Amino acid sequence: MVTIIDGSVADIKFESEKTLGDVLSGIEKWTDESGFCLSRINVDGAEAETGDMGVLFNAEIKDTKTLLIETTPFAVLYGEALNELKRALSAWRQAGNDRHHVEELWRKSPAAAFIAAHDKILSRALRAGFSDETVKDVLDMATERELEARQPLPVFFAMEGELNEDVARLEDLPLDLQTGNDGRAAETIQKFSGFMQKMLRMFPLLKYAIQENPETGYPVLFEEFKSALKEFLAAYENKDMVLSGDLAEYEIAPRIKNIYTALKEKLSPAAGV
User: Is 150 left (phi over 0), alpha (psi -120 to 50) or beta?
Assistant: First the structure.
């Protein structure tokens, strides 16, 4: 079987794979790690979306001559899905008595399925259904996310100023907790939480711009950070202010700075920096 990915014949050796489903599963994992999604599948001249997917995926490799695959950066598909969501929400606002129909069309759309699979926070916000309050909140979230998807590199580099402010506040957290400045301490935690949510959203959007395998090294950095973050949140919830302050200053602040710096070094060539 000849496998063609984005116009080039791929040098793929099949070992334990027997069916197209096996092959596509491996290719999808590889493209996902590189920041891309499968956007077109053609088997011996037949488009995947027009046939029986179950039959297609169960087809054996030995019976297939050509597998043609096209990919699209995850950021592009995510941005398109967010744009469709914004269109649906705006249409819902203007639909009057047809609002239910507009919402139903959205929920059956490929864009809705994409967001449900890739943005749990946004999907959770929509779960209860459209309402005036929900539409307002989700429109704000979708607008911010669409900018991130359309311009991931500029958005990432612009985050450095906010990161430096958050790191400085985390380093001040022990003093805020010791002196009873609970309001500022809570604000520091809230600001940092928002920054981290954005950072985690940005990582899948940036993979395509990292020349080497983006999964190499970064899981270690993130896993170590997540472990320290869980310990910090547990200490803060248990009102262990001494431990919370120490973790914020000596674990959380330097680790998130290191993660950002490591990503920046890899992304700078792609941005021409």
Answer: alpha
